[in-house]
Amino acid sequence: MKLPETQVAVLEAASANEPRTVESLSEDLDRKPESITRAAFELADEGLLDVSESIDESVSLTEEGRTYLEDGLPEVRLYEAAIDAGGDDDPVQMGQVIGASGLEGGAVDIALSNFARKGYGGIDSGEITANPDAGGDDPEATALESIAGGDADLVTEDTLDQLERRGLIERSERTVRSVQLTDEGVTALMEGVEVAEEVDRLTSEMLTSGEWRDVEFSEYNVAADAPEIEGGRHHPLRSMAERVKDVLVGMGFSEMQGPHADAEFWINDCLFMPQDHPARTHWDQFGLDVPPMQDLPEDVRERVEAAHREGVGEDGEGYHSPWGEDMARQIDLRGHTTSLSARYLSGIAEGDLEPPQRFFSIEKAYRNDEIDSTHLLEFFQIEGWVMADDLSVRDLMGTFTEFYEQFGITDLRFKPTYNPYTEPSFELFGEHPVTGEVVEIGNSGIFRPEMLEPLDVDCDVMAWGLALERLMMLVTGAEDIRDVHGTLVDLDYLRTEEVRY
């Protein structure tokens, strides 16, 4: 019998008495596992080998788990410090015990949350008591040692589950393939197996010489494993942004672009937001320690200042609050992309615009928010506005209806709200397809005269700011914005998630 070289090598190395793994054959024969696997499947098709599969589970420590293996679990350290401080006799001040334990930052919260769970003691009114009978080996600490020593099979399933929930271990599975000679394979070896000359492609020289008649062509086995290659691809959120862009361009909009770091003049002052507004403090926005912006258009600056001080029109009063040019020139990371709208409406970005006009942007904004399931420090905002005569809230609602229908969202809800730069104003809400929760997805309104007149705009402008991440949450069913955007996004999600149409 003549067989390709790799098949002969695998057949001769296989045993009739016990299975041999592909990895061991690969090491002995000095060939790639993929080549061994392909040859094994080909021999199995000929009835010369049996190929069996099993799942090998492995457990390894995460970086946090390795830290706790070296330093000790936070709750164990807290318990030991409480015992040393006499907490097994009388309550001890929590600050004293935490200081003695050496715990800092997030480790303190971890220790406190696991302290009572494990029965180490109690925490009440800022005092800690320690259970004197809770000493001994901590099962989770012992498990970390076992896993580090390669003895994960000694750890109970419940403890492994708990360590995985805490992010201290990673579990992985891989398919292990083993081969064993069949009776037909043993017979073939006894009768003799020869290496056949094998080629993987037909050349013009082989056709001309007739050599093709005497060679063995290698076969393709589409069932054989191949190494998984993870090529580059667009982030799902970027793909969603492109989808939104296609929809808005199809609705007749043109795209705006502008700086991420801009003067407070464009970010806030042009939006008729008073300089003593709480949202303009460093608690809500990120100020940059750079030289102030010098090239503000003087005529626009004067009109904006007048609007703040005196108001607009016969009945305008302004804010009667301080307004300073120095503050207007300070540079911040933009807290919203409406700063781009101010630049375009003023004519600074693209020259004077005559109605009707439609513009949009899908750019990042930055806010000093508390991170949770619906908020991040940076996010993508879908900014848009329409400039025309005699616009109304009905036009704005109709635009939203048309836009969101492109993504299968038809249950929009509107609620009146207040913005310094729009009147009337309302927020948009949509129902989450998984949780049923009503999620805020944007803010909108008709720009006030106090904003438009200083920018020399003499017609109506309706505008909105929508959250791209929240739109994606509604479309995909993601329940946490951190699952869509940020450093916690799972790599498998990035590799497999597709934009829904």
UniProtKB/TrEMBL annotation:
It catalyses: tRNA(Phe) + L-phenylalanine + ATP = L-phenylalanyl-tRNA(Phe) + AMP + diphosphate + H(+). InterPro entries: aa-tRNA-synth_II (IPR006195), aa-tRNA-synth_II/BPL/LPL (IPR045864), Phe-tRNA-synth_IIc_asu (IPR004529), Phe_tRNA_ligase_alpha_bac/arc (IPR022917), Phenylalanyl-tRNA_Synthase (IPR002319), WH-like_DNA-bd_sf (IPR036388), WH_DNA-bd_sf (IPR036390). Keywords: Aminoacyl-tRNA synthetase, ATP-binding, Cytoplasm, Ligase, Magnesium, Metal-binding, Nucleotide-binding, Protein biosynthesis. Residues 356-496 form the Aminoacyl-transfer RNA synthetases class-II family profile domain. Its cofactor is Mg(2+). Binds 2 magnesium ions per tetramer. The keyword Nucleus does not apply. One of its GO terms (biological process) is phenylalanyl-tRNA aminoacylation. PROSITE patterns: AA_TRNA_LIGASE_II. Mg(2+) binds at residue 423. L-phenylalanine binds at residues 338, 381-383, 421, 447. It is found in: Cytoplasm. Its main location: cytoplasm. One of its GO terms (molecular function) is ATP binding. GO terms for cellular component: cytoplasm. Its EC number is 6.1.1.20. Residues 1-33 are annotated as: Disordered. Tetramer of two alpha and two beta subunits. Belongs to the class-II aminoacyl-tRNA synthetase family. Phe-tRNA synthetase alpha subunit type 2 subfamily. This is Phenylalanine--tRNA ligase alpha subunit. The gene is pheS.
